[in-house]
Amino acid sequence: MSTTASIQIPGRAVEASSGTARQASFSTSPTATFTSPSSSFPGSLANRQKQRQEKTLQPFETQNIKILLLENVNQSGRDILTGQGYQVEFHKSSLAEAELIEKIRDVHVIGIRSKTKLSEKVLKEAKNLLVIGCFCIGTNQVDLEFAASSGIAVFNSPFANSRSVAELVICEIITLARQLGDRSNEMHKGTWNKVSNKCWEIRGKTLGIVGYGHIGSQLSVLAEAMGMNVIYYDVVNLMALGTAHQVPTLEALLNQADFVTLHVPELPETKNLISAPQFEQMKEGSYLINASRGTVVDIPALINASRAGKIAGAALDVYPGEPGGNGDYFTNDLNGWEEELRSLKNIILTPHIGGSTEEAQRAIGVEVADALVRYINQGSTLASVNMPECNLRSLTLDESKHVRVIYIHKNVPGVLRKVNEVLMNFNVDKQITDSRGEVAYLMADVSDVQISDIKEIHDGLDGLSSRILVRVLY
Length: 474
Prior knowledge:
- It catalyses: (R)-2-hydroxyglutarate + NAD(+) = 2-oxoglutarate + NADH + H(+); (2R)-3-phosphoglycerate + NAD(+) = 3-phosphooxypyruvate + NADH + H(+).
- The protein has helices at 45-54, 75-83, 97-104, 120-123, 144-149, 162-177, 180-188, 214-225, 250-256, 276-281, 299-307, 338-342, 358-378, 415-423, 451-462; strands at 14-17, 66-69, 87-90, 109-112, 131-134, 153-155, 206-210, 229-233, 245-246, 259-262, 286-290, 311-316, 347-349, 403-410, 427-436, 439-447, 467-473.
- It is of the alpha/beta class.
- The protein has a 7-stranded parallel sheet, sandwiched between helices.
- Helix 2 packs parallel to helix 13 (358-378) and helix 6 crosses helix 8.
- The radius of gyration is 26 Å and the shape is elongated.
């Protein structure tokens, strides 16, 4: 593949990548503020600190940064990105693959939720893409390895909607125990059916949590406050909250729990984690809740367990195949068993709404948008899910001739020596590097750099055989 580069006019950022020139321009990074009653005096400590803090990088024009936001990303995130001066294109739904490929060719940033699939096929067309923002917990919809090998960082929001999901599960536990879904449907049809048979209080019952992470641990506290006994299973040893306790195996949890709730990632190891053998291990008349990933539960096995009376009810918020948008799409054309599933008694079916609260979406919007801004403006990879985590302190007002060099490269021997040879005629104030698998990330702040020197730095790094992506911010 050919290699091209673009050096922009002063006040812009310089970038290049393998095969295609990547041009982008950047804005001033967010700054801290300091105020006090004496801050109006020029020589005050407050003013000296303010002068050191306010200037991070020389002002960058940002009108050329193009961002594509899909799936109704919350207004809080959109406001942060537009506030930086970026060009933001917003869509309420996901896009068909052909349209997505067409759109992604020109953008520097894409923001998605769970429906958009950024496969290798799609990402190969993203010639200018610098960073992906997943405005959700999961990142399994992105080919993380290919993104990293292309110099594309990925950020998500791993716990901003944890409370919303935990509250939904508590709601479903009570709804299943009291058969509220069936009673409500009957009333809507005009049928009065006042019964207490096989309707239970949840106080004193045992909740088994599979996966004791951000959501599982919050759920543990809520359930215990409502009088439930809590046990949990996780592949690692984790400290229990309250009086909950960890059990050694999934089988032990299934044998003891009245309610089983799943909070695990989508991995090869978790596919069909709950299938026919696991339903056999569950207590007679127990309940299953899945608000994690659709592939974790074998749905045909669940249908059989429900019909046989092995489980008394279930709540599903996620499915192996899900529609790309709202509408009458939850039919047999999707997975093949929808009609059978819908016919079951005491089954709660919701359309992947675990994190769909105003509070959660606002928090996710802010968290992911802030991460995108930090990466675009400063090169910080803190909290990236596919890049080494690197960060340098912000540049200051008295560092006006500083340049920040970002070098994403193959993790092979001898790279640091070659990078330092390129920078040997300049004063490197700060440098940090780290690797993750086959990809490494280097940041360096270089002082006393003239505009005429930037091309020399850029071209020197761009010519190295280990180069994946070069960015120079000044």
